[in-house]
Amino acid sequence: MAISPRSDATFSSQKSTPSESPRTKKFPLTEEEIFYMNCRAAYLTVFKSSLENIISKDQLYLALQHAGRNPSQKTINKYWTPQTAKLNFDDFCIILRKEKPTSKAELLKSFKQLDVNDDGCILHTDLYKFLTKRGEKMTREEVNAIINLTDVNADGKFDYIKFCKLYMTTNEQCLKTTLEKLEVDSKMRRHQFGNHIEGSPERDPSPVPKPSPKIMRKTDQETFSNKGDTRSSLLSATRKFKTSVSFTITMGANGNQNSKLTEPNLIKPCPVNLWHWPRGSISTSKNSSIFEFPKWHKWCLLPVYQDWQYMQSKGCFFLEEDGEIISHQYRMQITQRSMVYLTIKPLNLSQVEGKPSPWLSVDTALYILKENESQANLQLVCFTELRNREVFGWTGELGPGIYWLIPSTTGCRLRKKIKPVTDEAQLVYRDETGKLFLTKEFKSTLSDIFEVIDLDGNGLLSLEEYNFFELRTSGEKCDEDAWAVCRENFDTKRNELTRQGFMDLNLMEANDREGDPCDLWVTLHSMGYNKALELTEACPFVIDIYAEKCKPKIKAVHMEACSGQLEKAICKSVLSNGDAKVMDGYENIIVHTYSCDTWITSVIENKSDEKVIIHINNELSKNCVNNRGLNIFAVEVGPKSTMVCQHVMPLNERQEWIYYCIYSLIS
Question: Which among 65, 455, 495, 496 has the fewest CB atoms less than 10 Å away?
Fold first, then answer.
């Protein structure tokens, strides 16, 4: 659901190459080609073929070590979750792009912090305390193994300068050995590994960057990308297409004025939820459906219902470093058969009238799945395909039961920003007495963050709400004991943290760091803010639920990647509602395309017993942007499987947009 990351030369510090072939003499290898050669070399040290899958944590750890990484258990667990069954070669390449090899300078800098005498050594007692008490704790046996390394230990001291040199030399030798092994077998050099095609007869001298593929948990995916003026000729020279099928869809300009989404008749305008206002500050006017606010408040109307029951919850889409999108996921309970009206829209946090939040243009959707017997058995019911401006909704009848609400965004508009930020905002300052304070700008940002993580909108943070924030920013949860300490030291109401308490909590963190905002910036970046305190890599949203016959209940239960169940739901929805075209001569390969006023989604279905590679060309589309950020790419679809190929949206909604895409089966 998100764009693939831009390519980079991950192995830039490890540019060893095998002996030159006639081809490399004629055209020197690009950094991208060196990267994939190193990836292949490391992978083939562990496996016989790049088509083999990584099927255990131990295999992943070993392959990463051969690639010059030294992954911690936390790193391994990040990529091998309880839901992971296997990883393929493309997944391995993505991991290597994200987990950069540690440089000698970084190692020295880390150790130097413990070097109290500045003599290049660390006392064993200090080293032991540091490794077993802080960060990812090591066991006594693991620390002893380091201390027992004779080359780097003497007189009760650990010589970290020697250790860093030994570490880098070992990595370089490991890479050299794997490359030499790869060079021996000429068959390996002629294989297609992941995104890199080696052995084409001629290569354009200009480099052609190739972004890494996106990891798909359920479907192996292989992405070929080509950029630059020569990409079409390169593709035609290196690939042969067996058959093709094309789609052309012309979409009219949409100013968002024509509404397809309408509220049920019994939902009437009424003021904001009363819990936002102090008791006694609101009085009823002669019109029973309007409440009068104090003079210092503006009049405010929101939908409330005469016979319909209402619930609301907030959440957020977060853009990860690799372009993947994660969000909150919810369980909804309906106690009796009822008409239900569901909506999702971006949450406007702007305090300036007439200047809405910039992320309001991000598309949102909500997939509703019914739980049958277990969470693993979810049945797609519907999704919010109707639209009124930035609001997407659905109206229909739901029977009693438990439903999962999975938010989705295509990734066409929530994507990495290329524009760099030069000026860093100030977060804290000291007054003339030396006392530390939060700046006005930072307090405003924290207030917005509070608004986003206050999922139920009651103006307070429960332990569950705060833990979603903690998991996002630190990867850890706050337990009951820590929460009790928090309640004792910061402002709370009804055992929940107030906005002021949340501010004071961040001020305490700044004081603990003696004014160093480093940890505060980690929090801000995790929440999607850049150095200018602009929310650029997240999109908060709000879900509204109206039920005619019963009080609906909604609860956030997870914050996960927009894949897995969502991927299945999108595929099923497109297969049920989209147009299908069969590849000529290959009746088991079907391309499904679903279009609405807002976006177009394509899904590839492979009914055959073999994997297939499909080449996609969007070059003739006009006024379009897709979630991959590429006009030309390719995907690998596993046997007996379906996968979301791409989402496409207009660059400018007020102009006509033409979707013209050619799908070709690669031989």
Answer: 495
Chain-wide mean pLDDT for the chain? 79
List Cα–Cα distances, 573 to 449, 460, 567, in angstroms.
34, 37, 10
In terms of Cβ atoms closer than 10 Å to its own Cβ (0-12, 13-18, 19+), residue 481 is exposed
Tell me, yes or no, whether 224 lies in a domain: no
User: Within this chain, do residues 433 and 495 fall inside the same structural domain, yes or no?
Assistant: yes
CB 454 within 8 A of CB 273: no
Strand 436-438 and strand 121-123: the pairing is: unpaired
Among 542, 540, 510, CA closest to 528 = 540
Give the Cα separation of 414 and 404 in Å (integer): 23
**Confidence (pLDDT) at 186:** 42
Higher pLDDT, 439 or 167: 439
Answer yes or no: is 286 within a domain.
Answer: no
Which helix or strand (DSSP H or E) is residue 78 part of? helix 73-79
On the question of pLDDT at 650 being above 80, the answer is yes
Residues 666, 613: Cα–Cα separation, whole Å = 6
pLDDT of residue 187: 41
| Residues 605 and 582 reside in one and the same domain | yes
- Note whether 364 and 504 are same-domain residues: no
Q: Per the structure, how many domains does the chain have?
A: 5
Q: Residue 196: pLDDT band by 50, 70, 90 thresholds?
A: very low
Mean of the pLDDT values across residues 570-576? 95
Domain match, 511 and 586 both: no
The pLDDT value given to residue 100: 83
Q: Which domain holds residue 130?
A: 104-168
Question: Do 519 and 617 belong together in one domain?
Answer: no
| Gap between the Cα atoms of 403 and 554, Å rounded | 9
Grade residue 219 by pLDDT with cuts at 50, 70 and 90. Answer: very low
Distance CA 253, CA 597 (A): 9
The rounded distance, in Å, linking the Cα atoms of 72 and 384 is 41
CATH of the domain at 460: 1.10.238.10
Residue 68 placed within a domain: yes
Last residue of a domain, one of 134, 168, 202: 168
Give the count of beta carbons closer than 10 Å to the beta carbon of residue 84: 17
Q: How confident is the model at residue 155 (pLDDT cuts 50, 70, 90)?
A: confident
> In this structure, what are the phi and psi dihedrals at residue 421, rounded to the nearest 5 degrees?
-105, 120
CB 157 within 8 A of CB 122: yes
> pTM here?
0.62
Residue 276 half-sphere exposure toward CB, CA atoms < 13 A: 11
The answer on 349 and 437 residing in a single domain is no
Is 647 part of any domain?
Answer: yes
Reply yes or no on whether the pLDDT at 623 is more than 70: yes
* Average pLDDT value for residue range 66-88: 86
Query: Would the pLDDT of 203 be above 60?
Result: no
Query: Angle at the Cα of 638 (from 633 to 639), degrees rounded to 5?
Result: 140
